[in-house]
Design brief:
By secondary structure, the protein is α/β, with parallel strands linked by helices. It is globular, with a radius of gyration of 17 Å. This is Transferase hexapeptide repeat family protein. GO terms for molecular function: transferase activity.
Length: about 200
């Protein structure tokens, strides 16, 4: 669902995939190889939203702002399921965890990781590679090389997902019973706990 608002029509690069059940409105610019999941609301009515190349905005996220503000997701920002970004700047290769809330005039410098369910108060700034958790959120340590490598690998899956969706996604009727053989599901990625336990 792509909607114009006043004279603003969203700009979406053809390589990106916007799920038909997402809603993108107004002054929104979406770069290359961006994935936007179902239920996401990206509303550029009172200000601009810029989503740079290789970002993902997962299911049920909300991106909005107060009047006159630009929201910026820099290259390879990774916005987990249900997160809210309101009037903030999210740095390059950051991870915002599931159901986190990032309030107005927050700046996350590059390669920060924000824990799931964290709440970052308006006006906060976190330096590059901060690991930020809690309500209210606080920096608890630096993001290690190992952690950012794990994050980058996960984001890479989302960067190829738009092409996979364009090539393989389709509306279908459900099966009424399990077939004799199901396709094999590839294991493409390990959770952080698996990475730590295997290293």
């Amino acid at each position: 669902m792509i909607y114009a608002y006043k004279d603003f029509i969203p700009v979406v690069h053809e390589s990106s995939f916007i799920h038909p059940q997402a809603c993108v409105t107004g002054n929104v610019v979406i770069g290359k190889n961006v994935y936007v999941g179902p239920g996401a609301a990206i509303r550029g009515d009172w200000g601009a939203i810029i989503i740079e190349d290789g970002c993902n905005v997962q299911e049920n996220c909300t991106i909005h702002m107060f009047p006159g503000v630009t929201v910026l997701l820099k290259e390879a920002a990774h916005i987990g399921h249900g997160a809210v970004i309101h009037g903030a700047t999210i740095g390059r290769n950051c991870l915002v965890g599931m159901n986190a809330v990032i309030m107005d005039n927050v700046t996350l410098d590059d390669e920060c990781i924000v824990g799931a369910l964290s709440f970052i108060k308006a006006g906060e700034t976190f330096a590059a590679r901060s690991l930020v958790v809690g309500n209210p959120a606080k920096k608890i340590k630096e993001v290690s090389d190992e952690m950012i490598a794990w994050k980058t690998e996960g984001t890479a899956l989302y960067q190829v997902l738009p092409a996979n969706m364009h090539n393989h996604w389709r509306v279908c009727e459900p099966l009424r019973e399990l077939p004799p053989e199901l396709p094999k599901q590839d294991v493409l990625y390990e959770t952080w706990n698996d990475v730590k336990n295997n290293s």
